[in-house]
């Protein structure tokens, strides 16, 4: 498969200013009002559910439960009570999301950093160090991207809780992590699961660095570690940012890994676990669900909107090439 | 919320960051020290050879020298790859093999039971409905999400508010599946007919003269409504990738076609579609894999009740709630079997690419 986008290393591709693209002409010929109409309908359908949740989260409890959110425009009543309640409420049923919010942060930051560092090293070796079997290692790592997480969950959990043994001979001790220690499990699991995708994405960037540059550095007597540190790392900052955002969104939004490795306790469970729990046990407490959902959405949304360019670039480098 | 409760967590985070600095810093230092040590040894060997005065022994024949260099490169490459390979082995490869073995054992993983977990999977009615549901998901989500993404990409291409229009559709990508499920649960919310409806769908339904429905408890419609959530999330991804592919079509191709007097429809089917075919395949494959593994949506909305279960959700329930490790593992293996063709296809593509 050929690549359809140029590797964006330094700056986003300039929009073609030549003859207008074909799609634009189709649009112009497609009787503009119709095209505009269809796209507005799609955009509205895509936006309304989130907007409804957002408006609802600021309405008083009995209003949410008795009237639709669209009545807020004719009869506006707004309050911050729901947020106060769901974040800092004292009762067990209120959500107490502030603590879970911190858990999400504690889980996410190392889970982004570790795979980023390891994958950058691996991707460099697979791109520029000549050794036998290189392509096979790369293809193996690439194929692992597609192995469903479900294939690894049960044994990995027992690896943490009982240790590993071969034919009765223990190889590693049980980790026996309690309370806050469970964060380590989650970091470990997220790091392992992220590596295939990270190696693939970063390899796409690193292998496209100019060959002359590398060879010149080698001729000058620079060793691989030195080239990696002083030449490659500064050049792949955009790629690192792209994958960092990917991984941030993935970890922050993940439910499955957190459910299994972090448990449901308030010491380690992230926001998603708590929210899923609230949605299950307090299905009609819409004042908590709406504000809670919005609290969990707000961080990834800020990250996403402010760093959208890198994110899209990462998508295209990882996606359109495969 | 008390600070005292939060302090240990932040301490853990600090430990994590320290560990990160130590591990990565240590790796880089090692990478520097090890080759330098080798270089010094080689120099020492050369010096020794030179001082003993053996002419010709000082420089090994070129062929051998190359092989020595290659071996050192190999060692270094392995060192660069070491953390990744180690973690992949411990976290993915070995567990996947163990899951495969566990799927031939009973719930407590003590006795071998042959294929009985697999026969159970295909003979139970409820599990069969889980499999058919998954099939419906995998057919509908990639098709509809890609179609909507493509239509939208074409329609807003070079429109006045293109970037805003794209951001609106793309936004659900940043929302967690759990958040998205709550958003849509609110849309599907039900109250009995005599009250005002709070769910948008029932409100519209009532305005059209219908009786409010409990949308999520009525199969088979409920599965379709859950599929809507996934489409809502994935269409933005499809739109972004396809939009980039459309923009990458060379202008002179379009110009030539226009000079030939091709009309927009022909243009779309004969020029755009062939040009963006690779991107289309990527989108369909990526969305299909994501859909196969869907878990959060089903768990948050219905927890697999009312005939909405899918493989990933059922696997979780069997392995982690009912303690049926064997049956859960068999479901996981089946999930893997479903993606194998995609793996093979992707690897085939990759090898073609690397050879070019």
Distance between the termini of chain A: 7 Å
From the spread of the alpha carbons, the general shape of chain B counts as extended
| Low-pLDDT segments of chain A | 1-18
Largest sheet of chain A: 2 strands, antiparallel
Summarize the helix and strand pattern of chain B as letters: HHHHHHHHHHHHHH
Biggest beta sheet attributes of chain B: none
In one word, what is the shape of chain A?
A: globular
Largest interface pair = A-B, 145 and 149 residues
CATH architecture of chain A: Orthogonal Bundle
Please name the CATH topology of chain A: MetI-like fold
Tally of contiguous helical segments of chain A: 15
Radius of gyration of chain A: 24 Å
Strand content of chain A: under 5%
Return the average pLDDT of chain A rounded to an integer. Answer: 78
Q: Mean of residue pLDDT of chain B?
A: 81
Describe the SSE topology:
The complex is a heterodimer of chains A (about 325) and B (about 350).
Chain A: H1 22-29, H2 32-56, H3 61-66, H4 81-88, H5 97-128, H6 134-144, H7 150-162, E1 165-166, E2 169-170, H8 182-206, H9 211-219, H10 224-235, H11 237-253, H12 256-261, H13 271-281, H14 286-306, H15 308-319
Antiparallel strand pairs in A: 1-2
Helix pairs in contact in A: 4-14, 5-8, 5-11, 6-8, 8-11, 11-14, 11-15, 13-14
Chain B: H1 3-51, H2 62-102, H3 116-123, H4 125-156, H5 162-170, H6 177-187, H7 200-207, H8 221-247, H9 251-259, H10 264-275, H11 277-292, H12 296-301, H13 311-321, H14 325-355
